[in-house]
Design a protein that fits this description.
144 residues, mainly alpha, 6 helices
């Protein structure tokens, strides 16, 4: 019985390119909400956090690249692997900047305090490893 269910789901669900598209749309689409907040409210607070740590404030503008430009590139399939790398780097920097010391913390409902950051980072790294797949708006393979 279980092998029959497994075979059926294997036939219905054996669509790796559709899975890549779903992953790209999820990671890129959800990350755009963070980018929208940066567009609306600016990155001044990030520049302040950087200045407190002795880093130049202009680095804060990288949030626009990592949370707006790169997610759009991932969604459409343009330079997907480099864009995913930018997202991963953005997530690491953001986590170190904002959530330093929260590695062992839990939320009130028992979730890991860094699970959102871990989701985005692992999603970006997975996209980096898998590439765009065949469902993209970019047809030139050299630009995927």
């Amino acid at each position: 019985m279980f092998s029959g269910i497994n075979q059926l789901l294997g036939r219905l669900g054996d669509h790796p390119d559709l899975g890549k598209l779903l992953l790209r749309l999820t990671v890129g689409g959800l990350l755009l909400f963070h980018g929208e907040a940066k567009i609306i409210h600016g990155v001044g607070w990030i520049a302040h956090l950087l200045a407190v740590r002795g880093l130049p404030g202009f680095i804060a503008y990288g949030a626009y690249i990592g949370e707006v430009v790169a997610p759009v590139m991932v969604i459409v399939g343009l330079m997907t692997r480099p864009a995913a790398l930018i997202i991963a780097i953005n997530l690491i920097v953001a986590t170190l900047l904002v959530k330093t010391g929260a590695f062992w913390d839990r939320t009130d409902v028992g979730a890991w305090a860094l699970e959102t950051e871990a989701f985005y980072l692992s999603g970006a790294l997975t996209i980096l490893l898998l590439g765009a797949g065949k469902y993209t708006l970019v047809r030139d393979m050299r630009l995927q």
